[in-house]
Sequence to fold (99 residues):
Amino acid sequence: MDITRLSQPATAIGHYGDKHCWIGLFILHHSYAGQGIGSIALNALERRLRQENAAQVRLAVQLENLAGAAFWQKNGYAVIKSTKDQRGNKVEVYEKPLL
Fold:
């Protein structure tokens, strides 16, 4: 499995009306947890976004997803606000500068 090569990573990115890059969904099978594979894949995605001149990237994490929050914080993302997603779930919005 070549996790450093992403074909069309922009398919995972959306602009939700605020002109920021967003990671809509980032999932890794639980059997790969704790091996650094998620961070490697994320670094590859961030490199691709930099090539596309993305200044920062955002994502939302549901409040009860403590493991997800820890992953994003470990990879340099910081909470910029708390809100609700499109389904009414309470989430924290994370952001990381890329440039």
Residues 1-15 have pLDDT under 50 and may be disordered. The longest helix spans residues 37-51. Strands lie at 13-14, 21-23, 56-62, 78-84, 90-97. The two ends are 29 Å apart (CA to CA).
